[in-house]
Amino acid sequence: xxxxxxxxxxxxxxxEVFAYLVNPETQQIWQSGLQEFEADWGDDPAVGDHxxxxxxxxxxxLQWEAEITEVKRPERFVFRTVEAPFAFExxxxxxxxxxxxxxxxxxxxxxxxxxxxxxxxxxxxxMYQRDTTSNLANLKTILEAR
Length: 146
What we know:
Blueprint: E1 3-10, H1 14-22, H2 27-30, E2 34-39, E3 50-57, E4 60-72, E5 76-83, E6 88-97, E7 100-109, H3 121-144
Antiparallel strand pairs: 1-7, 2-3, 3-4, 4-5, 5-6, 6-7
InterPro entries: Polyketide_cyclase/dehydratase, START-like_dom_sf
Organism: Nesterenkonia sandarakina
Pfam family, one: Polyketide_cyc2
């Protein structure tokens, strides 16, 4: 089961980071591969809310639908797929570090089942890890420039 982990420290308080992180209007700004996104929530996501999107990974477009399984504002946000070519779950954990916020991204997916080609799946997993780290760096840059 592939796992993805990234961490970044953002020089902003947890509530500000959380609000931007879950805002449906900002998703395509800080996530480079996300081509389409819509969500059932506004400023206040709740367990059971759904989102849908299209992400481009390794040249392939993947459409997915996910539901929120846990929200603890401003500390934790968890969602998992309800429909996708392969299942995944993503957890964002936020912890105060002085005046800043440490953001942890933890994602897991079932084996991709050869979706990208049996031999390409491990390479795609490495590419996705790089994208995840880059996306958190984008989040940091955007929020610290405000």
